[in-house]
């Protein structure tokens, strides 16, 4: 690739392995004739006048009570049908002809039949059909269908001369006037053999230039002599002209990095985990354990284990814990200290990766001793803890056991797995279930916080299994009586909130499924739900707590779990919907299991067995590991001009630029990837990998060179990752992002009536721009969505059209709107949201303002090297990545913009310049005065003759932000002065 091509800000790419195909087209049937008696055909009678045929009499019907066929014994006779059709440019007609040839007097070497179409009012006689394919006899019993050149033909060997052959023509109206393009495929139906497809298309023109009128399908015998043709079935349909995929521009700003809530870089330990705990996968394959394979191929490990409190393992089976004889309700401390928890797994895990972040969870399902619990008669037969102090002691002891054994200490402890399920927590049939659940969690939190693990292990809950808290009527009563109550009742005791996020599918694309059912999390529902939760925390406690996603994925894989594509689609979608929220996400662990030796029928695993565990093998789920293996780096700013394309960008070590995309639309997109690089940096190479659906499973194209980044096909539901190798990258400035929340949640909206929110931004920072993130909910989708959104009185642009969601059940959308420079302010900011007319049952569930502010290093940074700092360029509306704007004179005062920056003057005000005044001093000499700017150094030069050299009178004068006076006491009667200014670094 040339240096010129590498240095373009807009890079383009097409993978050689990909072909840019059109979106699906739709067909319309023209005719479907089987030549049967039910259609009016009569044995040995002409087909003329039946089913729209205009045919010469030698064409007769036969076996109409059986398979039915139209027959010509040979000769020159045509048959056309008045079922007409028209073709737009790019549209096609598909003609399927099932026929059989035979002869009573040898095979000629000539064209024997034509099948195709003609323009109805123009082409008759010999010109019917004028467009289509030939059937050519080779003189030896073999024949071909197609056109004149070998590449345009499909051959039928002599051995098949009397077999039933189906040949399919696809004929497209060309953009070239009076031209059609055709291809042919053929199948031997008798032998069940695919005969192939033409390797080249043919082009034909009509005899008289007619090209766009109404056409009639037709067939004809020519030179056929004694070659008999029987047509068993004849179908004709049209295909709409395909539409090319919509182009979506993805912009990546590689001239600065992001710090999101103080987090600069992707932490793989946060984002990439799978199921079971590390240390569980000890079975070996080809010399490596299951866990070692997952670590090697995915740079991740299983991240979640459970502990039970009802029994422990001893050789020979499980043994129930006994009660402490001195403390009723407590587990015998000797048994507890010696046996609690799967300690050996955590020792193995630490050897694999001592820095791995893992989750430890109470297993639930009533796995508590009777003596620690309520009477099961009160809790619907589910053992449910009543002695919270005893439970807390057991939890702390389990952690002590891991620490004493030298194992990998968990980062999080979930009080109970899926505590919102009735068969895990027995009070969930009762109205005060969430009150008791909060009490249950606080008991463990108090015990852990009082232990030596208070600063190392975060207590998490409620690990909600059904967090669809809008409720079946859309009134959010489930939220009010569940999660929100949990926030209030646990106060500040919880260190993190746990959620299990499972999607459910209908068998279509994620886009289509979300319009049919609400359980598609990653298309707006999940980010909006987290914003609601965080917004509520801020308004209640003034702070937020992070989230732990210890399980997420797809609950009902209609295609079956051996089809890994849909599982991985959901896992990728959920992950990518949150990847820019490291400030609120502590850990994610996909529910993709390392293996399942307890149930070999389980296929959502990386290692499976088809013989009850005798042999194990890697499954296609390994493509998930391989896809994510290389991703690393600092967060970059990126955006796409479609809300249905999620994208994230990372810069790894200044060398590799990664861009991850997922197409959440129903059709393919043509991606135009553009990367803005700092001055002096260039792109050395570009590669792409992608995950897609093929052969009822997931498929992955590994990283492959990309030639044109402006035209890359990405199919519906596909995930792609670009890796751009860069050179000459400088140390980039960091821009800080912080999130701030509105003062209300779940505000019901009235059509056309604005609702105002107040959001405070802290003082002492420069809030240059940002994003307004709205959670919008409509019980039956949106007919439009928003009429106006403003921040501090400035209307925001690019309001999305949400009308495509009309009728969608319980629809929750996340809308992000760009806030331009100069709108945000320290202190209180007002946000006003006005819904469009006709939006019933709409709520604004949350309002989050993401502000961007330059870190200290940015104020003097100049990424495009145009002589102006990035912060100054943003302040005055210039592009900090555009080198050319430094040489422009925006106000026409004779000073270019870079000079205005150095002088500290307004580049848009031709009256703002360094003004100087020279006055004679009393006695002799002169007084020179000028207005100064801070952070500048000034020099005064003088000469007595403009043709002479300028001499320094004084220099190094620091600007004060006010006037500066210089006295020249020299007795010279005439003198010229000039002021020079430079930045004081």
UniProtKB/TrEMBL annotation:
SUPFAM superfamilies: (Trans)glycosidases. InterPro entries: GH. It comes from the Bacteria. This is Beta-porphyranase A. It comes from Pontiella desulfatans.
């Amino acid at each position: 690739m040339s240096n010129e091509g590498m240095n373009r800000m807009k890079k383009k790419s097409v993978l050689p392995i990909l072909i840019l195909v059109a979106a699906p087209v739709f067909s319309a049937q023209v005719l479907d004739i089987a030549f049967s008696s039910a259609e009016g055909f009569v044995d040995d009678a002409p087909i003329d006048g039946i089913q729209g045929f205009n045919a010469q009499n030698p064409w007769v019907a036969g076996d109409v009570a059986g398979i039915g066929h139209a027959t010509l014994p040979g000769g020159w006779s045509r048959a056309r049908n008045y079922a007409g059709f028209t073709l737009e440019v790019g549209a096609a007609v598909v003609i399927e002809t099932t026929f059989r040839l035979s002869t009573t007097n040898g095979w000629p070497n000539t064209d024997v039949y034509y099948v195709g179409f003609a323009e109805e009012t123009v082409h008759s006689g010999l010109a019917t059909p004028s467009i289509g394919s030939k059937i050519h006899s080779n003189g030896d019993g073999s024949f071909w269908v197609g056109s004149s050149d070998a590449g345009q033909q499909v051959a039928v060997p002599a051995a098949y001369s009397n077999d039933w052959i189906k040949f399919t023509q696809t004929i497209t109206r060309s953009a070239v006037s009076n031209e059609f393009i055709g291809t042919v495929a053929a199948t031997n139906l008798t032998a069940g053999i695919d005969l192939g497809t033409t390797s080249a298309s043919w082009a034909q023109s009509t005899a008289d230039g007619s090209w766009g009128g109404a056409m009639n399908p037709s067939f004809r015998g020519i030179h056929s002599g004694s070659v008999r043709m029987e047509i068993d079935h004849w179908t004709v349909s049209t295909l709409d002209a395909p539409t090319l995929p919509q182009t979506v521009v993805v912009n990546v700003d590689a001239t600065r990095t992001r710090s999101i809530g103080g987090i600069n870089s992707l932490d793989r330990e946060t984002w990439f985990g799978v199921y079971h705990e590390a240390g569980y996968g000890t079975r070996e394959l080809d010399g490596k354990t299951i866990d070692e394979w997952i670590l090697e191929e995915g740079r991740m490990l299983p991240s979640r284990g459970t502990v039970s409190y009802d029994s422990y393992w001893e050789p020979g089976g499980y043994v129930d814990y006994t009660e402490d004889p001195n403390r009723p309700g407590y587990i015998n401390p000797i048994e507890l200290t010696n046996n609690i928890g799967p300690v050996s797994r955590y020792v193995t895990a630490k050897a694999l990766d001592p820095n791995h972040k893992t989750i430890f969870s109470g297993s639930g399902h009533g796995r508590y001793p009777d003596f620690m619990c309520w009477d099961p008669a009160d809790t619907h037969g589910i053992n449910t803890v009543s002695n919270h102090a005893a439970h807390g002691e057991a939890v702390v002891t389990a952690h002590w056991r891991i620490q004493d054994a030298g194992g990998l200490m968990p980062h999080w402890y979930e009080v109970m797995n899926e505590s919102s399920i009735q068969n895990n927590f027995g009070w969930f049939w009762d109205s005060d279930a969430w009150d008791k659940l909060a009490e249950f969690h606080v008991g463990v939190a108090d015990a852990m916080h009082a232990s030596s693990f208070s600063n190392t292990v975060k207590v998490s809950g409620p690990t909600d299994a059904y967090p669809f808290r809008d409720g079946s009527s859309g009134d959010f009563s489930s939220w009010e009586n569940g999660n929100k109550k949990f926030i209030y009742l646990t106060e500040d005791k919880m260190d993190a909130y746990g959620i299990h996020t499972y999607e459910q599918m209908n068998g279509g694309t994620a886009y289509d499924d979300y319009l049919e059912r609400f359980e598609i999390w990653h298309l707006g529902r999940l980010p909006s739900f987290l914003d609601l939760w965080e917004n509520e925390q801020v308004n209640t406690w003034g702070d937020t707590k992070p989230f732990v996603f210890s399980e997420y994925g797809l609950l009902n894989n209609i295609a079956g779990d051996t089809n890994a594509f849909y599982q991985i689609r959901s896992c990728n979608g959920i992950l990518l919907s949150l990847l820019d929220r490291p400030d609120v996400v502590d850990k994610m662990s996909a529910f993709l299991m390392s293996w399942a030796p307890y149930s070999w029928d389980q296929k959502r695993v990386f290692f499976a067995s088809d013989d009850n565990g005798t042999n194990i093998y890697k499954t296609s789920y390994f493509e998930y590991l391989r896809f994510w293996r290389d991703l690393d780096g600092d967060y970059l700013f990126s955006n796409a001009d479609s809300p249905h394309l999620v994208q994230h960008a990372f810069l790894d070590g200044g060398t590799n630029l990664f861009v991850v995309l997922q197409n959440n639309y129903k059709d393919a997109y043509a991606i135009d990837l553009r990367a803005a690089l700092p001055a002096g940096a260039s792109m050395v190479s570009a590669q792409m990998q992608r995950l897609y659906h093929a052969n009822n499973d997931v498929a992955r194209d590994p990283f492959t060179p990309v030639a044109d980044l402006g035209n890359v096909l990405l199919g519906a539901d596909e995930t792609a990752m670009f890796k751009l190798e860069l050179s000459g990258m400088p140390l980039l400035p960091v821009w800080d992002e912080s999130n701030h929340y509105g003062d209300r949640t779940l505000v019901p909206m009235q059509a056309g009536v604005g609702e105002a929110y107040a959001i405070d931004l802290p003082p002492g920072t420069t809030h240059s721009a940002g994003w307004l993130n709205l959670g919008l909910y409509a019980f039956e989708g949106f007919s439009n969505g928003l009429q106006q959104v403003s921040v501090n009185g400035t209307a925001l642009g690019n309001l999305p059209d949400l009308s495509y969601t009309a009728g969608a059940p319980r629809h929750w959308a996340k809308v992000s709107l760009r806030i331009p420079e100069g709108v945000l302010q320290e202190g209180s900011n007002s946000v006003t949201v006005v819904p469009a007319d006709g939006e019933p049952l709409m709520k604004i569930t949350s309002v989050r303002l993401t502000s961007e502010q330059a870190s200290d290093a940015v104020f003097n940074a100049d990424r495009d090297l145009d002589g102006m700092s990035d912060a100054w360029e943003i302040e005055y509306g210039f592009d900090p990545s555009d080198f050319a704007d430094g040489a422009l004179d925006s106000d026409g005062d004779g000073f270019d913009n870079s000079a205005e920056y150095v002088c500290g003057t307004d580049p848009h005000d031709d009256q703002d310049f360094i003004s100087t005044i020279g006055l004679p001093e009393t006695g002799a000499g002169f007084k020179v005065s000028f207005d100064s700017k801070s952070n500048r150094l000034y020099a005064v030069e003088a000469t007595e003759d403009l043709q002479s050299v300028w001499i320094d009178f004084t220099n190094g004068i620091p600007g004060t932000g006010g006037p500066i006076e210089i006295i020249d006491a020299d007795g010279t009667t005439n003198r010229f002065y000039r002021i020079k200014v430079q930045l004081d670094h």
